[in-house]
């Protein structure tokens, strides 16, 4: 192939991947078993899907990082798991459908064969906002003595305000809930606004809204010839608090209605 042509293709690819993939998905798993798995990431109305094979060993965190996602599409993730340590329930299919937004969306409870699942959606460098669609160039910002704040706007370091970023911000000015912090943002004509920067798990102008965690549903492949009543008990008791949740939220009950045993 012509060298120039392939170079051009490479550049075009870079340009388009910059435009299209402004955010990514990161998923981590933990289990008490040795598992062979495949993660399938797809979207509701796009036939492309991405398959990521992975192995899990007991008590070790396995992280699949930087899987590109499209914020305009509902994401469907399916984890197909083969448990190499058990013969009666040797496989499981765990699915979840969610609308992507930046932050930690880990489910509150997890089920056999996992003890922890972490779901994190991050933005590529220089992209900000719930949908990673706000661009802020840190070089440009530093040229005017500012930095890109968590909202993707020109601002001062946390806690500071003023054109020279030397004055302190009082917490009273922005009335942020849920431990949000007050930050300064400069719009057009260097007009300054004091706004809330929300901690992980919260959003809204005053950080008043909770970002919902995802829900997951499991279907188990059960060999009826080897199935014992003790196995059923183990499955029901295996719905546990997700040990990898980083945002503590109140939750009333385990999602037992999401448990299905496929013994057909
Ligand atoms: C997402 O949708 C918005 C408007 O609906 C559009 O402006 C934007 O280009 C879309 N982004 C992608 C990556 O398709
Ligand atoms: C991945 O998931 C999508 C949507 O659920 C599905 O249509 C597709 O067949 C799956 N791919 C594989 C290889 O299982
Ligand atoms: C995907 O489907 C939803 C409704 O199901 C629609 O609102 C959205 O525009 C679709 N996105 C694309 C990129 O076709
Ligand atoms: C995993 O850790 C738990 C508690 O930390 C321990 O009880 C268990 O024996 C460990 N399992 C393996 C296979 O190391
Ligand atoms: C899952 O397990 C069931 C029961 O043991 C079995 O019939 C089925 O073939 C397994 N599926 C796969 C893809 O291995």
TrEMBL record:
Record keywords, A-Z: Developmental protein, Disulfide bond, EGF-like domain, Membrane, Repeat, Signal, Transmembrane, Transmembrane helix
CDD domains, A to Z: EGF_CA
Cellular compartment(s): Membrane
InterPro entries from the UniProt entry: DSL, EGF, Lag2
Topology versus the membrane: Single-pass type I membrane protein
DSL domain location: 121-165
Gene Ontology MF, one: Notch binding
Keyword Transmembrane set for record: yes
Protein name in the entry: Delta-like protein
């Amino acid at each position: 192939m012509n060298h120039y042509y392939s170079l051009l293709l490479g550049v075009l690819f870079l340009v388009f991947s910059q435009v299209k993939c402004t955010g990514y998905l990161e998923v981590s798993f933990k289990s008490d078993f040795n598992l062979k798995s495949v993660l399938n990431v797809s979207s509701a109305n796009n036939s492309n899907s991405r398959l990521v094979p992975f192995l899990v060993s007991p008590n070790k965190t396995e992280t699949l990082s930087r899987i590109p996602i499209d914020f305009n599409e509902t994401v469907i993730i399916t984890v197909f798991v083969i448990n190499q340590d058990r013969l009666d329930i040797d496989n499981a299919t765990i699915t979840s459908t969610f609308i992507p937004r930046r932050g930690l969306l880990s489910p509150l409870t997890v089920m056999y064969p996992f003890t922890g699942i972490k779901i994190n959606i991050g933005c590529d460098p220089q992209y900000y906002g719930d949908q990673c669609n706000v661009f802020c160039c840190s070089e440009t910002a530093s040229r005017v003595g500012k930095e890109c704040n968590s909202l993707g706007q020109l601002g001062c370091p946390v806690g500071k305000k003023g054109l020279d970023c030397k004055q302190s911000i009082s917490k009273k000015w922005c009335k942020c809930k849920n431990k949000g912090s007050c930050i300064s943002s400069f719009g057009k004509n260097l007009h300054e606004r004091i706004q809330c920067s929300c901690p992980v798990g919260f959003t809204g102008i005053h950080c008043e809204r909770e970002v919902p965690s995802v829900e997951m549903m499991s279907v188990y492949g059960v060999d009826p010839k080897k199935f014992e009543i003790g196995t059923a008990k183990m499955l029901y008791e295996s719905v546990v608090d997700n040990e990898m949740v980083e945002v503590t939220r109140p939750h009333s009950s385990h999602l037992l209605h999401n448990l299905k045993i496929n013994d057909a």
